[in-house]
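Example record used in the benchmark description.
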Amino acid sequence: MNDHEIELIRRAPEDSDAFMELFTLYKPIVLGQIRQMYLRDLSRDDWLQEASIALMRAAKSFDPSSGSQFGPYYKMVVHSHYVSVLRRAMARKRVPPYALAYLSERPAENSLADILGYSGRNEQERIFALRLDWENFVSELSPLERVALHHKLKTRPLDDRQKRALERVKHKLKTFLADLAD
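Model output (structure tokens):
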């Protein structure tokens, strides 16, 4: 590692030109890591953005006096950061599809669609369509919206924040169901 690289690493957290030069210099490491990772909802640009976050972290914490090289250190930091991104994404996907098992057992006047104010096709078609993409719908909700929906389905009382979140869920569900109808 030469003096120019050490200077880039030192300046990178405060100087955007130094940061971009350092990022360009170590971009092959990033591209190698990207080829090993896959997440349906993240594009290549998203992975590069995450790599720049990892580069900032690595540049701030790297100590050139320790005798280690920056390349392997950055590779370890970016890999760790990517694993964290994947772990967070997978945790969101593991959110249980609240009340899915109960949809077909509810009486027609107490169905999910009725609770949320949806009126459209007949009840059986709505339940079938909702079951097909329910997990996708729930994964798109914020944690607060999921809790509000869960409380509403279990007929538990809602606080004011949850009531506002439930209004957002209603809007999202209407859009979701309208998309299923198309």
